[in-house]
Design brief:
Radius of gyration: 32 Å
CATH superfamily of the largest domain: DD-peptidase/beta-lactamase superfamily
Shape: elongated
CATH topology of the largest domain: Beta-lactamase
Number of helices: 20
Helix content: 25-40%
Largest sheet: 5 strands, mixed
């Protein structure tokens, strides 16, 4: 055989082999395995995404706080859309013509062949009305899913809300597709992967008018959705409800913690918002209204607001002063409506007995006393200069959980601000400091900023006589990615805490916190009046009860409340009585009514 004939046979053999391969593959695809055929039949079927119900959220006593309700999405496959009644669609879903055009263009931009959500979270009544007309809308179909249902009309700062995913979020996590919803704030955001579950899919047959005719291949290619996992919070919803009522028409925050466990019993940012506003067809309009509200209800004042702590900070100064040995419980300081302090200034104070003893300094919140304590700390002879002494003082302050984020359950938490040495070097333009330069820190003013959550943690440390457990609002889920809950011990002697607590008891029995008193509940507290250059001073109060074996520690921070004794202390006392006794005594009903009805928001307008 010549070379030419040999080559012919080789070419023929190759061609026959290729044909055999194609025949075998076609046989497999069309007879043995029709998966690819199934995926190709877009004219007779479409894939419905099966959205899982999000996990439920409960309070500490098993009360259901957040669950789900049926809602519907109007889907379109742009390639299949034909002429339809535009006016009817606009009227049914309360859209403008511009909004409809914009949405349809976005769907087409995503894909002309794949389904996209045109209108999401349609309530049942509108779905029922439109379903009867759907046959007149080629390329349109309804997809079932669930949306959130909140069983309280407050605490949006705690639960947060879900919103439609952005392009950036889709790029970061391929699990999401356009039209999906994702936790946007609060627990919905922090625990998104825990709550969301896993999407499934269902392939359905449709006729030429997009009406569903049944399941394809009896559901052989369907995938079941996996329901999201539940969250069990540490909230006492009855206490939370009560705290919300007390803070109505006031700006500020309340955080209450169970000292022995670090479990957050109540967390109220006021003014707040109803998370149900973020569900349904009106959610976009509602969000814009909340954003434009001058009272900033979307701003979480318990974890994001950074306030000067005021006089409640004197408890920390007292503990550090005792631990460092610069004062003892026998230390006294003269004060006659104030006293001269370092730098040639006069530190004002309200009138009380003089000289001031240690316990009386806490009872009467004496400013000169704590200027004296802070100055002694900064000028301690074991340090070479004020700057170095301040650096050590700052480390001791940080051990109280200040200057850092505390609660792993809230991604939006601020760290607060405990100025560093480098910060003051820059501000003072020198490294040779004098105590007088930063003396306002002595009374919790100046550049010192902490959050209400951190203030509540101070109350917890005092209640526990020297330790705190990581504050948290969600009980352990068993998920390895959840941040650990651990105990933090402070290197301060227990006896010094007992000394400070004796003064805090006097605050309640005979001092500035008398308005917090409750019959038969031994309580320890500390008032604070925080200077505010933009209006009336802020009213602050920390407390815990009972004094022995405490069950609750809390902070009440009321913006523009003038004095700690005017609003913060009474509200704190009512909350403690409500939690420990389950009701408010008749004796305190008038005070309760006064707190319910007081309005520090509209009266300032």
């Amino acid at each position: 055989m010549n070379k030419f004939g040999y080559r012919q046979w080789i070419i023929a053999a190759i061609m026959v082999s290729v044909c055999v391969v194609y025949i075998i593959r076609l046989f497999i695809y069309q007879v043995v395995d029709d998966t690819y055929k199934v995926m190709a039949d877009n004219n007779s079927q479409h894939i419905e995404i099966q959205y899982p119900a999000r996990g439920l959220i409960y309070d500490r006593n098993g009360k259901l706080l957040v669950d789900n309700q049926a809602s519907y999405d109007l889907m379109i496959v742009p390639r299949q859309v034909r002429e339809f009644d535009t006016l009817e669609l606009l009227s049914t879903f309360e859209l403008t013509k511009e909004e409809l055009v914009e949405r349809m263009q976005a769907c087409k931009k995503y894909s002309s062949y794949k389904p996209s959500i045109l209108v999401s979270q349609i309530p049942g009544d509108k779905y029922a009305t439109f379903q009867e007309k759907l046959y007149r809308y080629p390329g349109f179909y309804i997809q079932t899913r669930t949306s959130r249902k909140y069983h309280v009309t407050h605490s949006g700062d705690v639960f947060g809300y879900t919103s439609e995913v952005t392009a950036e979020q889709i790029e970061k996590d391929p699990y999401y597709s356009p039209g999906d919803y994702i936790g946007a704030s609060g627990l919905e955001r922090t625990y998104e992967k825990w709550l969301r579950g896993k999407k499934g899919k269902k392939i359905v047959l449709v006729d030429n008018k997009s009406r569903v005719q049944g399941s394809f291949h009896d559901g052989e290619y369907d995938e079941e959705a996996v329901v999201g996992k539940d969250l069990h919070t540490t909230l006492d919803i009855d206490l939370q409800d009560y705290a919300v009522r007390l803070m109505r028409n006031k700006k500020g925050g309340i955080v209450a913690i169970e000292p022995s466990t670090g479990e957050i019993l109540a967390k109220v940012s006021s003014p707040g918002y109803d998370p149900q506003l973020m569900v349904g067809l009106e959610r976009g309009k509602n969000y814009r209204a909340l954003q434009a509200d001058s009272l900033t209800p979307l701003f979480d004042r318990t974890t994001m607001a950074q306030y000067p702590p005021g006089s409640i900070f004197k408890t920390i100064q007292a503990l550090i002063g005792l631990q460092n040995g610069v004062i003892t419980t026998a230390t006294t300081v003269p004060c006659h409506g104030g006293a001269p302090i370092t730098g040639g200034r006069f530190m004002k104070c309200h009138w009380h007995d003089s000289p001031v003893t240690f316990e009386a300094s806490i009872e009467n919140s004496c400013n000169p006393y704590y200027v004296h304590v802070f100055q002694k700390i900064l000028e301690d002879s074991k340090f070479g200069n004020v700057r170095d002494a301040y650096g050590e003082w700052r480390k001791q302050v940080a051990q109280f959980g200040l200057g850092d984020r505390l609660c792993p359950d809230f991604i939006n938490e601020s760290a607060g601000f405990i100025p560093t040495q480098e910060y003051y070097d820059k501000v003072l333009k020198t490294k040779r400091w004098y105590a007088s330069y930063i003396i306002s820190l002595a009374i919790g003013q100046g550049e010192l900023l902490i959050t209400p959550l951190q203030m509540a943690n101070i109350a917890t440390i005092l209640a526990n006589r020297g330790y705190y457990v990581t504050p948290h609002i969600v009980r352990p889920t068993g998920d390895s990615t959840q941040a650990p809950i651990v105990r933090h011990d402070l290197p301060i002697k227990r006896e010094y805490f007992e000394d400070v607590i004796k003064g805090m008891e006097r605050v309640i029995t005979q001092g500035t916190g008398k308005m917090a008193r409750a019959d038969s509940i031994p309580m320890a507290g500390k008032t604070g009046t925080v200077q505010n250059p933009h209006g009336d001073d802020h009213s602050v109060f920390i407390a815990f009860a009972p004094v022995e074996n405490p069950k609750i520690a809390l902070i009440v921070y009321v913006e523009n409340g003038v004095w700690g004794s005017r609003y913060a202390a009474p509200i704190a006392g009512l909350l403690i009585e409500k939690y420990l006794k389950g009701k408010i005594s008749d004796k305190k009903k008038p005070l309760e009514k006064q707190m319910f009805e007081s309005d520090l928001v509209h009266s300032k307008a």
